[in-house]
Amino acid sequence: MFLESIILWLHILLFVYWLGGDLGVFYSSRFRNSPNYDIKTRQLIAKITSNIDMAPKTTMVLMIPIGFSLVAINNLWVIPNWIIIFFWIFGLAWLILVWWLHLTKDLEKKAPWAKFDLIIRYVLFILLLIISFTSFFNNYPLLENWLALKVLLFALTIFCGIMIRISAKPYILAFGKMTQEGSSPEIEKVITKSAANARRWVKAIWLLISLAAFIGIWKPLI
Amino acid sequence: MVDIQIFWLIFHVLILVYWLGADISVFYGSSQLTNNKNSIETRLAIIKIISFVNWFPNIANILIFPVGIMLLVGLGYFSEVGELIYLVWVPFFFWFFFITGSITQRGTYIGKVYSYLDTSMRIILICFVYLGVSFLYFLDVILIEEWVLLKFYLYGFILICSFGIRYSYSDFTPTFKKLIENGSTPEIEKKLNLSRNKVKPWVISLWIGLVLLSYIGISKPGI
Questions:
Q1: ipTM over 0.90
Q2: How far apart are CA B211 and CA B208, in angstroms?
Q3: What is the DSSP letter of B142?
Q4: pLDDT, tens digit, for every residue of A101-119?
Q5: Which site in A24, A103, B48, B208 is 20 to 30 Å from B26, CA atoms measured?
């Protein structure tokens, strides 16, 4: 009972720091993208945004071991509970990678690991999608349909995260160019367009995780 | 059909999201405000971000009490009071009005009046939480279980912390104005840093209070 309430509490705190942390990231990005501010200011805001963004990034990674621990403790799957150890090993290893990528400044050193991180996200998306569908149609491995729906929503969140990376690629290049060559209407156009594209996916994440929280509280009989 | 209690519960969790979660940006952003390596323009941009994001914890601070009461009503508490319990929203509506006024009218006479009303509201609430609720609990006027009492006390503690934040940060705004008008000087930077260092323990205490508040709500100890 004590362990269950601790894990449920952590699960809620992850949601709190994910969605709440994202608010600051989202709002400050407007300043980062605004040509009304000098480059130094925009660079600093980019640094602040990236540091605050570590809260949502960390919580998203930890959602997997903590979420599935909650599944195990409530016997909501047919898999032996000791398997949860692997979820924790994976989650902690991935978390180390995510933080290492954030703290390492050497872009060349980072590049292959950033690609690896992206591969993890693709694999997780597909894996969670499979888990969700097999649970829906065959009650395997998850025993409740509301839980399968939650996993589906989480998989879609990961997909949105991948799409943010893809749509923000021109942004990162243009922002880098701006810091070296200064602002120009062309660069600002790329920044504005790419940021607008990424924002759509961010909003989708908010909707999906809020829905997931709602389903988790409601636990509807589907 | 979704039970109304589910909506109150998700609302309650979302309040925590936009209080505790949003506070990270405010806290981290404020560390850059006191960094003398940052230009005044940069710091002005940061203060705009902080001011906007800080609306969320401010509003959450107001809503958490009446929404929490509605949740307790759904659990069967306060049945002795009947429909009158819904009147709990009235003072919080006014409080919202006072806070909004004190922020948007900051620096004016009317802003000071709103700020005074906001302070009075907080003092009344702290007194109600520690004296009123204790009276209701210890004299068995209405049924309040230990975990609910603990939540009330913790809410009072959070309100005290918010007072601490307010008073330890009171020097910050005039000093920051000086920074904008006169530029950076070692004295101004020292004062800004001092203000921030004074506020830190209060902010961390408030966070601990909120985190504990959520744990008690989940574990409901004693039941």
A1: yes
A2: 5
A3: S
A4: 999 999 999 999 999 999 9
A5: A103
